[in-house]
Amino acid sequence: MTGAQGATRPPYGRAPARARAFAVASLGFAVVGGIAAAIRSQSTDNDWLAVFLLALPLSIAALYYGRHVETQVVDVDGDEADEAVARTSRRIAVAAIATSAALCLGLAIWSAWDGLQDVGDTFFSWENIKSSFPDVVEGFWLNIQIFIIAEILVLGWGLVVATMRRAPGRAAMPLRWFAVVYVDVFRGLPAIVTIYLVGFGLPLTSLPVVSNPDLSIDIGPFHLDQLACLGILALTLVYGAYVAEVYRSGIESVHWSQDAAARGLGLSRGQSLRFVVVPQAIRRVVPPLMNDFIGLQKDTALLNVLGVLEGFNIARIYAGNEFNLSAVTGLGICFLVITIPMTRFADYLVKRDQKRLQAAGG
Amino acid sequence: MALVEARGVVKRFGEQTVLDGVDLEVEPHKVVALIGASGSGKSTLLRCINGLEALDGGTIRVDGRSVLQDDIKLNRLRRDVGIVFQSFNLFPHMSVIDNVMLAPRKVLGVSKADAADRARWLLDRIGLADKADAFPDRLSGGQQQRVAIVRAMAMRPKVLLLDEITSALDPELVDEVLEMVTDLAHEGMTMILATHEMDFARDVADKVCFLHKGSILEEGPPAEIFGSPRHERTAEFLRRSLEGRSR
Predict the structure, then answer these.
(1) Which candidate among A3, A184, B106, B215 keeps its CA 20 to 30 Å from the CA of A294?
(2) In A, which residues are within 8 Å of B106 by CB distance?
(3) Could you read off the pLDDT of A32-72 as tens digits, one per residue?
């Protein structure tokens, strides 16, 4: 009897219909459950969740089953009616999933509506952002000045430290040790601790320049007082350690045979570095360098511990007075406007380098 | 007078003695082939002649000038001593012609136009003029190695050191490089080459030196070395490399 059935029926004859039934059932479950939950939630709440947690897995099962059947029907080259049924069952299943997910989300938002409104008011109050924004932007301009100057200093200082660490010969041993200890210490310390120590500690000493309360930078658009200058110094110390390592790995990533080839042609040590090693190192160094700069830009906000009136500090003052954090959101947007394009650009450079490497067959 | 003259050259890497009292004389316009097993010191000897390795004993003189570990003297010496490596070592961030022009411009102070003229002329002679503006990664291994030789020749060296320049090449690319070296030999270029290509050494060299464990065990005209080696070890080495080839 089973043999006769097997002979008369194609292998998946019933399966598409089964999948369709499954899908229709789950869609129905989702819709009926939605209505039931809506009615119930008028009186009590939270029963809807159980209903939808049932509808969702059922719908996923229907989708999976329908999809499975469809591929098999197509694979055995079943008749067209079967394929159509399988496709329909898959569509219904998709609809069931979408329906239950949408209802789920809708009900979740509905039940938490008051809380969400509070979130909107606390973080995204248009009034607050608007009134604080001019001052916040003015403060943020100080962040920009700080990170521009710090980035320039970091580029130079990092190179100095990297060169010290690679200095050849026994005479340069103290330099190498200094570089190693410096990098270890400032990469290991939390940035905020370094900033605190430098910003509050150095003015208490009688060291020249840094303890002078009249220390300031006044060049072109840059206007920075002593605290901001000390903040720049601290950031330079912290990020100089990172960038020194970036430089070092870049130079070391150029194979020594490149230097040998250059020296073999008669180029001096310096010429080989300048024309052969460093140009190759820079390409590899730019993406990690950009990442460190993004970190530096964000960390300018840490200078608020010194009382520097940069964007975050001003936004914080607004937030405290208004008991509303929207001013800080405004500052966050300022940062994102600068950091997101930069991160994207760094990613693009990395991807481009990878492509070039692949093209070179390496 | 010999153009290159090595006397009792000793080189150690840590405990290991790589060169153990090597004497070598190379007359102008002659080609000397260094043969021997891997690790016998062929490459190290070439690198010492170019000053890329410091000596632990003995002296090397090139054109009467001592090879000393002094940066300024070495830079001067290397103008006269070109070296080409097994792994080409073209500068990947420069076009082919910039690779060739770099040293003449920066070391000899040749003007850009003159350097470019000479580079194009050299590239044209080896049939790579159309690759002048390409980057090295677009070239085959054989083409890259020929450019590396041209790059060394652009400095008009008095002697050219070739360090197993065909060892990293696919077999079908070896001949184009060897032909180029043969042409240079016919033009009277003084060369010292470390090689595993025995047929090539026999054809192109005026003198063949067999290195064994850091010293020159036997040297002489190719006919003598390959025809009737005096030393047991030389015969053994030649037999093995012939077997290796027939495989």
Answers:
(1) A184
(2) 267, 271, 275
(3) 777 776 776 665 555 566 666 677 777 777 777 777 776 76
Q: What gap in Å lies between CA A227 and CA B101, rounded to an integer?
A: 52
Q: What angle do CA A112, A333, A218 make, to 5 degrees?
A: 150
Contact A257 B82 (CB under 8 A): no
CATH topology of domain A122-361: MetI-like fold (1.10.3720)
- Quick one: how many helices (H) and strands (E) in chain A? 14, 2
Q: Which two structure tokens, joined as six digits, stand for A69? A: 């059947």
Confidence at residue A50, expressed as pLDDT on a 0 to 100 scale: 64
Number of residues in chain A: 362
- Put simply, whether B26 touches A (Cβ < 8 Å) is no
Q: What is the dihedral of CA A254, A255, A259, A262, to 10 degrees?
A: -90
- More confident of the two residues A55 and A188: A188
What distance lies between CA A208 and its chain's CA centroid? 41
User: Does residue A361 carry a pLDDT above 50?
Assistant: no
Whose structure tokens read 């607004």?
A: A318
Q: Which residue has the higher pLDDT, A302 or B242?
A: A302
Across the interface, whether the CB atoms of A265 and B151 are under 8 A apart is answered yes
Return the pLDDT at A206.
85
For residue range B211-223, what is the model confidence (pLDDT) as tens digits?
998 999 999 999 9
CB neighbour list of residue A289: distance below 8 Å, 6 or more residues apart: A243, A246
d(CA B115, CA B106): 10
Residue that is written with structure tokens 């940035």 in the block: A191
Residue matched to tokens 């405990």 = B15
